[in-house]
Amino acid sequence: MYRYDKYDQAIVDTRVEEFRDQVARRISGALSEDQFKPLRLKNGLYLQLHAYMLRVAIPYGTLNSNQLRTLAHIARTYDRGYGHFTTHQNMQFNWIKLEQAPDILALLATVEMHAIQTSGESIRNISADQFAGAAADEVCDPRAWAELIRQYTTFHPEFSYLPRKFKIGLTASDHDRAAIKLHDVGLQVRRGDDGAMGFRVFVGGGMGRTPFVATLVRDFLPAEHICTYLEAILRVWNRHGRRDNIHKQRIKILVHDLGGEEFTRQVEEEFAVMLPLGDDMPLAEYERIAAYFAPPPFEQGLEDTLDLSDPRFAAWVERNVAAHKQPGYAIATISLKPVGGIPGDVSAEQMEVIADLAEKYGFDDIRPTHAQNVVLPHIRKADLYTVWQALDAAGLGADNLDLIGDIIACPGLDYCSLANARSIPVAQKLSERFADPARQLDIGELKLKISGCINACGHHHAGHIGILGVDKKGTENFQLLLGGSGAEDASLGRIVGPGFSEDGVVDAIERAVEKYREVREDGERFLDTYRRVGVEPFKEAIYG
Amino acid sequence: MRLITGNDLATGDVVWWTGQYWSRHVGEAIDVGADGEKIAHREEAALRVNIPYVIDAEPGPNGPILKHIKEQIRASGPTVRPDLAIEPADPNVGSYVI
Amino acid sequence: MVEAAIPPSLRFRDDEPADEPAVTLDAFLEQPDAVSVRIEGGDDVRRLAPLLDRVKLVEVDFPRFRDGRGYSSARILRELGYKGELKAVGDVLVDQLLFMRRCGFDSFAPNQPIDAAVASRALEEYDFVYQQAADGRIPVWKLRHG
Questions:
Q1: Which ipTM score applies to this complex?
Q2: Do residue B70 and residue A474 have CB atoms under 8 angstroms apart?
């Protein structure tokens, strides 16, 4: 993975001291809360229901064991013994004290981590495919570009007071595991007809109050101009994005209001104007960064077989392990969704187990995913059983990847001051209702996503089944959506009808699932059946 | 009854106005009647509380019963982690189902 | 408690300030003798492009510090070759000064006074920057590769 040089380190260290000074000015009263809030948000520090919450950046979802152990240490020393992997590949701590935040950031800086621009109206953490470097279907490892873009968008002077947050996602494969079409800018690394490297550029995706799938703005952008092109996009939005209504200020609204064609025209015009400025980083810089993402020293000529005689291990392999491009290796996903558990939460002890396994068996490579799981991308098949046993002993052996039990849920009203309803109890009840492994397998792939409010941090619009918690006259109420997808076939879920109580929505989902089982054809996932038969049969089943 | 709640500036702890100081325990909160805004402003200006606001409640056997579920959760802790509850002895923790 | 304020000389130019009050962009375009113009968030600064030679002062208004349109306006003016005074006016806090300088602002008229020593510290805080901007600072990628 990328390692800081003296420049990267100096920038992060300076930021820590700058923030330490800002915190002191807040605590002394020299800064009001109104003045301080955007400053603390630029360092990922929210004031939530119970305490301050710190969102630590995990750039493009890549960590090493030393960093994960530091997160475990922070959980123990400054928090209540656990952390939460988010739907944007970051980690959140829920019980932070403002007066300790500068020390926490200083500690993070010693392991090349930070919380820069993880909230507020900033350019946020760059997301990337969690299988980068391991998947056979990628053009190259997109994370080198993600790192280059991360640097370019850090403390960008023109774009630090944007209309709203801004999220960039990268993939280097036609199979989109990073949901790039639901980002403000989605970049697919690809090769042009002459073999040159470039990007397919999508703009204006996003969920929230007005969800959109991103629009294709440029089919092929030469890779060396990505910085200028991003500047052009950001400048058009910074100048013309709405500033009058916080719910209408994301770039997706501007793209929609102008229309794709006019938006593209403005971007291309600005791009042409900015190109002569020479803002782009040279190829040499890309190559310097890319060297850090060269493949690890895989052993050659390994046996590509697995002993699956242990049925529980076999079940886990079947669900959670994906093919690796290198024979003899495998991509293992650790599900953080045990039956009845809190999706994405992980204890300090569990973090250390994962760190140890990655260090010993996985080239020290750890990848949180936007589905709130963690991937160990490079495990020798010969070591998989040992790895699984350790995971299983630590409560990390759930074999439900992409099944109905692999629920994505935001923290919801249990933690979040923005929420209208609790999401975690719904997730727990659903997890328990569908706990039977045979039943989950029979249902097959079903991506279930729960948000506790319209901000959609649970990505409910992108769920095959989505749940949106609302406040209905002071009571928690849950709307059910069907048919969303965050993959390359991106689509937005639609609400099926009136909302439910917490227990009601669990029953409703069970009826929807049974209807799917009743009418499905061979090989169809829930989403496929829904797309084939439409919403009516499901509506009937749910509402009777 | 009307209570004032807010957060402790330095720690982020949820706090409740007792008439004399800011307590972490909702059971000590008093009814401020019509004076809530005035007290809140004064306390915030003196840096004794961060972002205070006035809420409605009913008196109850174990302390004020807060009107909105969000405030109940602020007062007691996340319903999904009763081990982290602010007042673990509170019998209502974990059963805030509406 | 407001930060102690020394009368701020938050002007990073040696020439004499323009002594004419700034007029709106529309007015400026209609008054051939005007030399000072005030840009609001929604104004298109590129309308000044043919007239930059006669502009001595551009004031860019920041009604709320969260409204960052002025940063683009400033940088665009510098890209067009504008060499006159570029002043950030309004809701400007010390924490925005560095970004504003980088976008080409060379004077500041904040609503709340900013201590000059605090401002100075803020502007010198970062030894390194990742991007090229209007201030001519060398970005890290150039330092890395010469």
A1: 0.95
A2: no
